[in-house]
Amino acid sequence: MSRTDASAAPRQGAHLASGISISDVSHSYGAQGGSGVLALDGINLEIGDGEFHCLLGPSGCGKSTLLYLVGGFIPVQSGTISTAAGLVTAPGPDRSIVFQNFALFPWKTVKDNVLYGLKKAGYPSAEREPRAQRYIDMVHLTGFENAYPSQLSGGMQQRAAIARTLAVDPGILLMDEPFGALDAQTRRVMQEELRAIWRESRKTVVFVTHDVQEAVFLADRISIMSARPGRIQHVIDVNLPKDRGEEILENRDFIGLSEHIWRLVREQAVAATRGVH
Question: Which CATH number does 18-94+170-274 carry?
Answer without folding.
Answer: 3.40.50.300
